Amino acid sequence: MMKRENSNRTRIVGLRLTPLEYAELEKRFRASTCRKLSDHIRRHLFNKPIVTTYRNASFDDYIEETMALNSELNSIGNNINQIAKKMNSFKTISEFKTQVFWFEVDKKKLFEKIEEIKIHSQKFSEQWLQL
């Protein structure tokens, strides 16, 4: 059985900080990948590497646009499902023809959005990979 890393940690060190100092410590801790504040402090004290996270603005923009496109695709998909449900309940040809028309309109929107997603993904890939 593997021994826990902190099993021999029996000594406690108390430290007082000003609110400003604590806020700075908290900010650095939140930016790191450490799960516990004590791990973060220990790494800093003993000059161990601290992995920090960062936000990539281009990726944030990509995610935002992708979420908007996803929302639009969900709306189009719902419309198509409603049309299919209605089409299965029709008794006359004219009702059926009307729904086929709206189905074609939504199908065109769907393919336009799919093309937009392809272009969007291609732009992001080129930017990310710096092609």
Automatic annotation (TrEMBL):
Q: Which Pfam families would you find in this protein's record?
A: MobC_2
Q: Which InterPro entries match?
A: MobC_2
Please give the superkingdom of this protein's source.
Bacteria
User: What is the name of this protein?
Assistant: Plasmid mobilization relaxosome protein MobC
From which source organism is this entry? Flavobacterium hydrocarbonoxydans
Gene giving rise to this polypeptide: mobC
